[in-house]
Write a structure and sequence with these properties.
With about 230 residues, this protein is α/β, with parallel strands linked by helices. The chain has a single domain, classed as NAD(P)-binding Rossmann-like Domain (Rossmann fold, 3-Layer(aba) Sandwich). The chain contains 8 helices and 7 strands. The structure holds NADP nicotinamide-adenine-dinucleotide phosphate (NAP). It comes from Kribbella aluminosa. Pfam families: adh_short_C2.
Length: about 230
Amino acid sequence: MTTALITGGTSGIGRATAHLFSRRGATVIVTGRDETRGQAVAAETGGRFIQADLAVPEDVRRLAAEAGEVDVLVNNAGYWELGPTADTTEAGFEAMNAVNVRAPFFLTAALAPPMAARGHGAIVNVSTMVAARGAAGMAAYGASKAALEALTRSWAAEFGPAGVRVNAVALGPSRTEVTQSMGDLLDTLAAASPLGRANEPDEVAQVIAYLAGEDARPITGAVLAVDAGRVATL
Ligand SMILES: NC(=O)c1ccc[n+]([C@@H]2O[C@H](COP(=O)([O-])OP(=O)(O)OC[C@H]3O[C@@H](n4cnc5c(N)ncnc54)[C@H](OP(=O)(O)O)[C@@H]3O)[C@@H](O)[C@H]2O)c1
């Protein structure tokens, strides 16, 4: 049976991904800071919740140790502080890089080698269209996710020969808890794409599950745009 560790599984896209993996028979481990939401998702999916703050290196090490052997790692947790470059604090910059780059790096460092030793495994990293296209107010966030996309390609090269695939999804506007507060702005942003729509969390989960699953066995090192065609077009 497949065991999947999903970071940021307490909310939004991560929670939808946990539910989908569970419906498909996987053993699910979710992680996040929020004990109440995490325990709820664990109960709903018949899985396990491990509380961890991914901005804290010790928590990342403990999470990897407590998760044990996993077949699928979804590096979904993300953190962003948006605003002009001149207003970005060093603490905010570091927090984005801690959660969006350092935590996936060291989780993968701990969990991919055992996958490689077993000869199979899949990692899916959750990025944003802002990694590939400039957006005012999103410089530090976009740069952190661009680093995650670079890691995706390097890990594909490093772990592919041992049978471990590593891919990413680059999301357009998606309707989750964090974007609820944006109100109409989410739909305005989504309207700029050819399909003119925002992603629903379950739709993103389906793509993540595809990349993690056997149907995607020829695919590694890919960054798949899940953005209603936004970055592919003028
Ligand atoms: N929604 C969008 O429009 C959109 C667009 C492009 C990319 N994305 C990416 O999609 C991913 C999921 O976002 P979402 O929209 O589903 O957001 P969300 O509903 O706010 O979920 C974010 C998740 O990340 C976890 N997280 C954040 N900081 C953490 C930390 N320090 N330690 C541990 N967990 C932490 C949160 O868990 P706790 O609260 O329990 O700590 C939560 O489960 C992110 O990587 C985001 O960058 C989203």
